[in-house]
TrEMBL record:
Keywords: Membrane, Transmembrane, Transmembrane helix. It is found in: Membrane. InterPro entries: Alkaline_pH_Ca-Antiporter, NaCa_Exmemb. The keyword Transmembrane helix applies. This is Calcium:proton antiporter. It comes from Streptacidiphilus cavernicola. The chain crosses the membrane at residues 12-31, 37-56, 68-92, 104-125, 137-157, 169-188, 217-236, 256-274, 286-310, 316-339, 346-363. Residues 37-190, 221-363 form the Sodium/calcium exchanger membrane region domain. It is a multi-pass membrane protein.
Amino acid sequence: MSEAPRRRSPLLSWTVVAPTVALVVLGLTFGRHVGPWVAGVVAVVLIAAVLAAVHHAEVVAHRVGEPFGSLVLAVAVTVIEVALIVTLMVSGDSGTASLARDTVFAAVMITTNGIVGISLLLGSIRHGVALFNPEGSGAALATVATLSALALVLPTFTTSAKGPRFSGSQLTFAALASLALYTMFVLMQTGRHRDFFLPVEGGPAGEEHAPPASTSAALVSLGLLMVALIDVVGLAKVESHTIEDVVHSVGAPPSFVGVVIALLVLAPETLAAARTARRQQMQISLNLAYGSAMASIGLTIPAIAVASIWLDGPLLLGLGSTQLVLLALTVMVSILTVVPGRATRLQGGVHLVLLAAFVFLAINP
């Protein structure tokens, strides 16, 4: 009679080992300008930390339920983004004056076109149509559009300060308004209108979920999520010089560094949204996409406004003409996608083409 297979200890799970190893690598490399081979190792460890963060964030999200789960993921991603922007701006290297603008705008384009486009494609493959709640998604899109206009469009046209930037009082107003809008949306999403952000009833049946983790397991995942986020922030800072060197070597403008950072920090969100879309839970995917875009502006701009007190040099927030056209087109297409409450693969393809145009023009402005 054969022996029963041994159960592997949870402590040996890759989702536990990866954040731990990443923390060790961070301690050995932080504050150093690493060579190409070490940078390659750091990149592999960084990817493992991102995947571990996705796993632990999903465990926590499944435990607390929707729409709180999407909120956990969005805030976690934004913490990474804010920390990366501030640490890179503190370094004072060339190009950091526009780093916040480039990263936030890239985050908006990646979430509203990339994550939404991928989710629509995956969500409509099986049944041809992806169903979602137009009330919740429309409210989220309206908030994202307003935040984008306040933080990224208006600085291009104001005249109190020279260049595409706010004066001190204008930056304070934009930061407070962004924080207020984000807070109001969170209260709506988690309060009286919570049902606007739940999967549509009567839609295609999704996959069966495993039961939620216990409270103790969820708390452990929350702790490991925090460790993984610290790993991602620190290792991305270690990789920042390598990223800048690669961007320079391919002839891309310095602003493309912001695109790379946004792609990096939104990797957990993209993977999570793709998984929920495959399970035919399109509303959760849109919650993740628009929630990340909203948090990216609503939390990053206030944080940068506070950090600007001790940061030297100007803070450029206003978008250029090409970026303004892409943003306007994205908002119009997103409205046409969200209003019906159902979308096909065509809408997903349109959003992905817009993302491709953004990335291409970021490399070849």
